[in-house]
Every structure is written in C-alpha cells, then in structure tokens.
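Go through this:
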Amino acid sequence: MSGEGWAALDPGRSKCGLVRCDAGRSRVIAAHIEPSEACLRRLAQWQTEGLEGVVLGDGTSSGVWLQRLRQLGLAVEVVDERGSTLAARNRYWELIPPRGFKRLLPRGLRLPPRAIDDVVAQLLLERWLGVPLGRATELETPLLEQERRMRRAQKLAQKSS
C-alpha cells in the first residue's frame, strides 16, 4: 500500500479534531484537538511524512478548510457529518471503556470526561474507510491533560474577571 495513511479533520470555529491512521488503515496513531492554525501546521508536517490525504467533515468551516487543504496539495474527501457528535459520544466509550461507577450508568447518561472532537474526526475517517479503526490507549492521556489545563485556565479567567 502506498503512502503513510490518511488523516481526518472535524473542523470547528475555535478548535478542530484531527486524527491520523496508520498506512494499513487499521489503527489511529495520532489524535489531537487543536486550534485551526495548529491543525494546518500539523497536516503540513504529516504531508512531508507521506500523508495520503485528508477526510474532511462537511460541517462548520468546511468550505474554508477545503480550500486550505487543496492549497497544501493534499487529496481531500468530504464526508457527511450528520449525527457524528452523538455517535462520537458512544464511540468514545467503545474506545475507552468506562471504569468505576461509570460502568453502572446507562450508556445515554455517560458523558465523556473531555471534548471529543478527535473522536468525531475518527468517526468521519471510519465512515469513509468503511471499517472501524483501533486506537492506542496511550493517545488518551495527553487529551485528558489538555482538557484539565483548559478547565484550569477557564477557572482562573473567571476568578480574575
């Protein structure tokens, strides 16, 4: 198989979900939630490493992103985003099984402990590939830490205002 896998982007106004799968298209090897410019830089870096293309959600800001990705010279596949946020909430718990008391809660009452834009991006990639992707559990720790830092910063901002 040529190339070094595909990426998927869930574009948003303030932040985007971004994932990359391996060359065998079986596993997510990178997952990020970042501001738009950081995602663009990361995609440009992945392109130098042989990224084959990007699956793009057709929601918020997708038209702008389509132009930006094509300017980088990346192949782009646009995928229907409808229902992806709710589906990502369920997919999160499949990827990261609940522990402790959360195991006892009905699925519909479980809320992920962090933003799930990366899981939405993974779902978009899975929709396009037509297969579910595995995911390394070690990808979760940096995303949880990022969420904790963001919440601390928000609390500090609220206290200072």
Remarks:
- Residues 140-160 form the longest helix (21 residues).
